[in-house]
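Exercise: predict the structure of this protein bound to nicotinamide-adenine-dinucleotide.
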Amino acid sequence: MVNTISLLGSTGSIGRQTLDVCREQGIKVAALTARSSIDLLEQQAREFRPQLVAVNDLEPALELARRLKGLDIEVVYGLEGLRRAASMRSSEGVVTAVVGMAALWPTMAAIEAGKRVAFANKETLVCAGELVMETAKRYGAEIIPVDSEHSAIFQCLQGSRDRGEIKKLILTCSGGPFFGLSREEVGRKTKADALRHPNWNMGEKITIDCATLMNKGLEFIEAMRLFRVTPEQVEVVIHRQSIIHSMVEFQDGAVLAQMGTPDMRLPIRYALTYPDRRKSELPELDLLKCPPLTFAPPDLEAFPCLKMAMECAQIGGTSCTVLNSANEAAVELFRQDRIAFGQIPDLVAEALDKIPNVSHPAMEEILETDRRARECVAEAVK
Ligand code: NAD
Ligand code: MG
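Solution:
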């Protein structure tokens, strides 16, 4: 259990739910960070009284400092501010609830400071997963997944002492809002359609990733990195009800599943209270009122993003970085109404075609690939 945390990305969906868990469990907050929403950040700072608050830019930082005057809270800005928040001496744990590759530097700072990292941000594990996991091992930092599927797997693995016992990880996938449609039908969907997720209420970027199934593709790679398994040992199964959050099949044929009502506060709470389980106010799972649990294979023709991610999982190296960063850039263009939904996979495919792969990349190669993938998407839509 951690008693004090730094929360990176406190104004987002995971960030706000993390603060719910802090209220519920009496966990203290030493640092809060957000890109720009200073109204909410001010409220959070007044309630949790952190030592440090970090925002991206100087102007909002000055405004926030003015508003928090007299409260003994230091307000900082920029990348250095994020890094300081991630490595605060008083924090035992760091929750990475920032969206996108922007979380890479602060996550590395948290790891190098030997913190428990409650890992919500999947993009960094896709872009730089091998490096992140190696560095965590070197510095003795605990990496605990927050993503619901990976938390489910982590929970199912608690009774297992040897990774060799794992036969397969079974990632469940809701199928998203466009389940059952053809590639053409999916390609014509609008932003309003894509932002309507059947079972979860999340930030916009991940909600769009759920609609293309890129989210499951990113999670496929995330699972390989976190649990050190091969792509052949990861399977994706469509499970519309989101009651089973994922499963582990062991060598002896036993399959363990973690079930529950879909609520991110459960995996967040577990990442902070681990190895303990604490009481919560979460609505109970009533099996007698549950819809029937169904399972189906994913349609890789209708959802090419998942297929590309599985291919990148096989190739490894910077192909995973290209996949992620081209997707981040394409999703951003879609959010700005500059491209159609169906162009997201096309732009990712083009970047994967154009940018050569580097295996076992160092940090500089990962950052350079990230830059090139974004540039490639920008060029393609010019
Ligand atoms: P969100 O958009 O709701 O919130 C993102 C947070 O990060 C905000 O506080 C924002 O201010 C901050 N931020 C955004 N860009 C930044 C930048 N460039 N620099 C610094 N801070 C920045 O996102 P979310 O839905 O909470 O998702 C956060 C992460 O958790 C993502 O990686 C997502 O894939 C993962 N995740 C989310 C859920 C969910 O239910 N929302 C579930 C599983 C995993
Ligand atoms: Mg997930």
